[in-house]
Amino acid sequence: MTEEDIIKAQNAPRDELGVIVINILYNLEGGTIYCMLDAPNKEAVEKHHGIMGVKCDWIMEVKTTQKK
Q: How do the domains of the chain map onto residue ranges?
C-alpha cells in the first residue's frame, strides 16, 4: 500500500460490511500497518481487508468504554 492508499482508506465512509476506519498507524519502510476499525464482527474485518487485497496477520476484538 502507498501512503495515498492509507489516507484514502482512513477517509472512506462505512462500507457495505459495516466497517469504518477509526485510525491507521503505519511505517511503510518497516512494512507495518495497524488499523483500528469499528466493525460488526471479525468476519467483516477479514472481508473488508480481502476486498482491498490486504492480508491481516491477526485480528483482535476489543471493547470500548466510549459511549456511542
A: 3-52
| Residue bearing cell 477509526 | 22
> Which residues, including other chains, have CB under 8 Å from residue 27's CB and lie 6 or more apart?
33
Q: How far apart are CA 14 and CA 37, in angstroms?
A: 10
Q: 10 Å Cβ neighbour count for 35?
A: 20
Q: What is the pTM of this model?
A: 0.83
Query: Which amino acid, residue 63?
Result: K
In tens, the pLDDT along 16-68 reads: 999 999 999 999 999 999 999 999 999 999 999 999 888 889 999 998 898 86
51: part of which helix (H) or strand (E)?
A: helix 42-52
